[in-house]
Design goal:
This protein is α/β, with parallel strands linked by helices. It has one domain (about 30-55, about 80-230): P-loop containing nucleotide triphosphate hydrolases (Rossmann fold, 3-Layer(aba) Sandwich). It has seven helices and ten strands. It has helices spanning about 45-55, 75-85, 100-115, 125-140, 155-165, 185-200, 215-220; strands spanning about 5-15, 20-30, 35-40, 60-65, 70, 85-90, 175, 205-210, 220-225, 230. α4 packs across α5 (about 155-165). The chain is globular, with a radius of gyration of 18 Å.
């Protein structure tokens, strides 16, 4: 089985006295270590699909597997534990905690890892967590920004901190929703380079929603959505 599998997935939301179908009859397989992008016009269901594949939400109809685990059968708490162990997520708006420094933001998933795994992890000691965080800051070119707060960082620097945080606990898959959407072309290009390098070096599966044609062109595969359905290639 592929790392991520969706079968007959539909998502409907209530709307007034009726309902709106955002996704309909989605079948999708994403292999381990693949770099896949989801593209399509606004309102086509891209972010909704990303959330279902990441276990942030459950489909109205259909089945979703991640690493052979049936996500749509899990409770909200079980899906949260699954994400804490195996999933990284990068948002367009960075979502850094403003009261924490760059290093402290990166350490958040590592501090949650022992609880999420249900047993002592490699991040159980403070020294191990800090070493991992500083190593990642250096990896994304921000080794001298460890003690800076998000407000003291540029948009590109915040997104690189967000990437480091997403990779901190060595997830098997990273989901990203428009990771270059708020960045200028040059800064976005550097973020794309980092994503591709981390995908290649760590064999982390990447699944991204994007309008960025350069980013889409660098992926192994593009999945095009329109009207809530996957379009033929």
């Amino acid at each position: 089985m592929a790392l991520i599998v969706a079968r007959d997935v539909s998502k409907t939301y209530p709307s007034g006295s009726g309902s709106i179908t955002v996704l309909e009859e989605i079948d999708l397989d994403i292999e381990s270590a693949e770099f896949a992008v989801i593209v399509g016009p606004s309102g086509s269901g891209k972010s909704t699909l990303l959330g279902l594949l990441a276990g942030l939400d459950r489909p109205t109809v259909g089945r979703v597997w991640l690493d052979d685990v049936r996500l749509d059968e899990l409770s909200e708490d079980e899906r949260a534990r699954m994400r804490a162990e195996k999933v990284g997520f990068v948002f367009q708006t960075f979502e850094l905690l403003p009261t924490l420094t760059a290093l402290q933001n990166i350490l958040v998933p590592l501090e949650l890892a022992p609880t999420a795994a249900g047993h002592e992890s490699e991040w159980a000691s403070r020294e191990a967590r800090e070493a991992r965080g500083r190593s990642l800051l250096g990896r994304v070119g921000l080794g001298d920004r460890a003690d800076h707060y998000p407000v003291q960082l540029s948009g590109g620097e915040q997104q690189r901190v967000s990437l480091a945080r997403a990779f901190a606990h060595r997830p098997i898959v990273l989901f990203a929703d428009e990771p270059t959407g708020n960045l200028d072309r040059d800064t976005g290009g550097r973020v794309i380079d980092l994503l591709r390098e981390l995908n290649t070096e760590a064999q982390t599966t990447l699944v991204l929603v994007t309008h960025d044609l350069e980013l889409a062109g660098r992926a192994d595969r593009s999945v095009r959505l329109a009207g809530g359905r996957i379009q033929p290639e």
